[in-house]
Design goal:
The protein has 13 helices and 8 strands. Helix 5 (77-90) packs antiparallel against helix 6 (95-107), helix 5 packs across helix 8 (138-144) and helix 7 (111-118) packs across helix 9 (148-155). The strands form 2 sheets. Strands 2-1-3-4 form a 4-stranded parallel β-sheet, sandwiched between helices. Strands 6-5-7-8 form a 4-stranded parallel β-sheet, sandwiched between helices. Helix 12 links the parallel strand 7 (204-207) and strand 8. With 251 residues, the chain is α/β, with parallel strands linked by helices. It is 51% helix and 14% strand. It folds into 2 domains: 2-117, no CATH class; 123-236, Rossmann fold (3-Layer(aba) Sandwich), CATH 3.40.50.11810.
Amino acid sequence: MRVGLFVTCLADLMRPSVAFAAVKLLEGAGCEVVVPPGQTCCGQPALNSGDSKDARKIARQVIQAFEDFEAVVGPSGSCMGTLRQDYPALFADEPAWRARAENLASRSHELLSFLVDVLKVTHVDARHDGTVTYHDSCAGLRELGVRSQPRRLLAGVAGLQLLEMRGTDECCGFGGTFCVKYPDISTKMVDDKIAHIEASGAATLLGGDLGCLLNIAGRMKRLGKPVRVMHTAELLAGMGAQPAIGEPEAS
C-alpha cells in the first residue's frame, strides 16, 4: 500500500524521531511510505482560534498534497482528527472542495490505529525492559477511537510492563491554544495528570500525541520529576534508548 505520511508540525520542529519511527513501523508492515513536500500544518491552531479563512486555505493545500495516496497516516490523533472530522465541515458551502475533503477524511488514519485496524498488525519486534504507563489524548480517544490499539501493540513488546494510571483518559491541559488562553487552568490539569503518572509507579510515560507529551514533559522537568516521556511509536520502533522528550540530546 502506498501511504502518504503526515509528519505534523510538532514532529517536524520538535521531535523528528517520531516521524522516523512512523516510517519504520509502516515500512515494516509492508507499506511504501512517501512524505509529500507540499504538506504543511493541518490548520488546527487557526481553526481553534476562529480563523476559518486561513484554516480553509491550509486545508486546501493539505488536500492537494495527499490526493494521490491510498492512505494518509500521521502519528497524531489531534492532527488526523482535524483531517477526518473538521475538514469536511470547513467546506460546507463549497460542494467541490467538500467532496475532496470527505475523500481525504475517508483515507486518513492515526498511525497506531492504522497499523492495528487496517493493516492488521498484531506484533512488532521491539523490546523495553521497564514499566510504562499510557496517556490517552483527547482527540485520539474521542474523535478517532484510539484506545485499545496502542495497548495491543505494547502487550507484545518484550520486557515491557504496562501500569495503567488513574484518569488515563483525562485531558492533560494542553488543548492547543487552550493552554495559552487559560494557563492557570491548564497548569492545574497537567499537575493532576502528573500526580496520576507518579501514582502508577511507571518509569516511562507513553502517548500518541506530541502536544500532550511536550506539555507533560515540560511541566515534569520544571517540577524535577524523573519519569521519562516518549511517543509510543518511538518505543515500538526500537528507539527507546534515545533521549526522552525534554531530555538534552547527546552531543
